[in-house]
Amino acid sequence: MSDEGKLFIGGLSFETNEDSLAAAFGKYGTIEKVDVIRDKETGRSRGFGFVKYDNAEDAKDALDAMNGKTLDGRAIRVDEAGKGGRFRGGGSQGQGGYDRGGSYRDAYDSYGKHQ
Question: Does position 94 have pLDDT exceeding 80, yes or no?
Fold first, then answer.
Protein backbone atom coordinates (compact mmCIF):
# COMPACT_ATOMS: atom_id res chain seq x y z
CA MET A 1 0.00 0.00 0.00
CA SER A 2 1.32 3.44 -0.91
CA ASP A 3 1.94 5.99 1.84
CA GLU A 4 0.49 8.73 -0.31
CA GLY A 5 -2.61 10.14 1.35
CA LYS A 6 -1.84 8.53 4.72
CA LEU A 7 -1.82 10.69 7.84
CA PHE A 8 -0.43 10.05 11.30
CA ILE A 9 -2.71 11.33 14.08
CA GLY A 10 -1.04 11.76 17.49
CA GLY A 11 -2.31 12.87 20.88
CA LEU A 12 -5.59 10.99 20.62
CA SER A 13 -7.81 10.60 23.65
CA PHE A 14 -8.07 7.04 24.93
CA GLU A 15 -11.80 7.43 24.19
CA THR A 16 -11.24 8.08 20.48
CA ASN A 17 -12.07 5.09 18.30
CA GLU A 18 -12.10 4.39 14.58
CA ASP A 19 -15.66 5.67 14.18
CA SER A 20 -15.04 9.02 15.88
CA LEU A 21 -11.74 9.48 14.03
CA ALA A 22 -13.45 8.73 10.70
CA ALA A 23 -16.27 11.15 11.56
CA ALA A 24 -13.81 13.96 12.33
CA PHE A 25 -11.68 13.42 9.23
CA GLY A 26 -14.35 12.23 6.78
CA LYS A 27 -15.49 15.75 5.90
CA TYR A 28 -12.22 16.32 4.01
CA GLY A 29 -12.60 13.48 1.54
CA THR A 30 -13.15 9.78 0.99
CA ILE A 31 -11.32 7.71 3.58
CA GLU A 32 -9.88 4.36 2.54
CA LYS A 33 -8.89 3.15 6.02
CA VAL A 34 -8.81 4.31 9.66
CA ASP A 35 -6.73 2.69 12.39
CA VAL A 36 -6.46 3.57 16.08
CA ILE A 37 -3.41 1.71 17.33
CA ARG A 38 -4.08 -0.37 20.43
CA ASP A 39 -1.96 -2.15 22.98
CA LYS A 40 -1.87 -5.84 22.07
CA GLU A 41 -2.33 -7.00 25.66
CA THR A 42 -4.89 -4.56 27.04
CA GLY A 43 -6.68 -3.42 23.89
CA ARG A 44 -6.36 0.17 25.14
CA SER A 45 -5.54 2.91 22.65
CA ARG A 46 -1.90 3.89 22.38
CA GLY A 47 -2.97 7.48 21.71
CA PHE A 48 -2.23 7.56 18.00
CA GLY A 49 -3.64 6.32 14.76
CA PHE A 50 -3.65 6.61 10.99
CA VAL A 51 -6.14 7.88 8.43
CA LYS A 52 -5.64 6.89 4.78
CA TYR A 53 -7.41 8.92 2.11
CA ASP A 54 -8.14 7.81 -1.44
CA ASN A 55 -6.79 11.17 -2.64
CA ALA A 56 -3.54 12.79 -1.44
CA GLU A 57 -4.99 16.29 -1.87
CA ASP A 58 -7.80 15.41 0.55
CA ALA A 59 -5.17 14.25 3.05
CA LYS A 60 -3.36 17.57 2.73
CA ASP A 61 -6.61 19.46 3.30
CA ALA A 62 -7.29 17.39 6.41
CA LEU A 63 -3.75 17.90 7.71
CA ASP A 64 -4.00 21.67 7.27
CA ALA A 65 -7.45 21.84 8.87
CA MET A 66 -7.06 19.37 11.74
CA ASN A 67 -3.48 19.78 13.00
CA GLY A 68 -3.69 21.31 16.48
CA LYS A 69 -7.47 21.01 16.69
CA THR A 70 -9.31 19.40 19.60
CA LEU A 71 -10.83 15.93 19.19
CA ASP A 72 -12.59 14.24 22.11
CA GLY A 73 -11.13 16.81 24.50
CA ARG A 74 -7.50 16.49 23.36
CA ALA A 75 -5.40 18.64 21.03
CA ILE A 76 -4.26 16.36 18.22
CA ARG A 77 -1.21 16.49 16.02
CA VAL A 78 -1.52 15.56 12.37
CA ASP A 79 1.40 14.80 10.06
CA GLU A 80 2.06 12.87 6.88
CA ALA A 81 2.69 9.25 7.84
CA GLY A 82 6.33 8.28 7.66
CA LYS A 83 7.63 11.84 7.28
CA GLY A 84 9.38 12.05 10.65
CA GLY A 85 8.84 14.72 13.26
CA ARG A 86 8.42 14.31 16.99
CA PHE A 87 5.35 13.57 19.05
CA ARG A 88 4.54 13.51 22.72
CA GLY A 89 3.13 10.04 22.95
CA GLY A 90 2.51 8.29 26.22
CA GLY A 91 3.58 4.85 27.22
CA SER A 92 6.54 3.15 28.79
CA GLN A 93 10.14 4.12 28.37
CA GLY A 94 12.27 2.01 26.11
CA GLN A 95 9.58 0.92 23.65
CA GLY A 96 10.79 2.67 20.52
CA GLY A 97 8.06 4.85 19.07
CA TYR A 98 6.04 4.85 22.27
CA ASP A 99 8.42 6.52 24.65
CA ARG A 100 8.30 10.28 25.01
CA GLY A 101 11.34 10.63 22.77
CA GLY A 102 9.86 8.60 19.93
CA SER A 103 9.27 10.01 16.51
CA TYR A 104 6.45 9.72 14.03
CA ARG A 105 8.84 7.60 11.97
CA ASP A 106 9.30 5.19 14.91
CA ALA A 107 5.56 4.79 15.36
CA TYR A 108 5.01 4.49 11.62
CA ASP A 109 7.77 1.90 11.28
CA SER A 110 6.21 -0.11 14.10
CA TYR A 111 2.65 0.00 12.81
CA GLY A 112 1.91 2.20 9.83
CA LYS A 113 3.60 0.43 6.97
CA HIS A 114 2.22 -2.92 8.09
CA GLN A 115 -1.39 -1.82 7.79
Answer: no
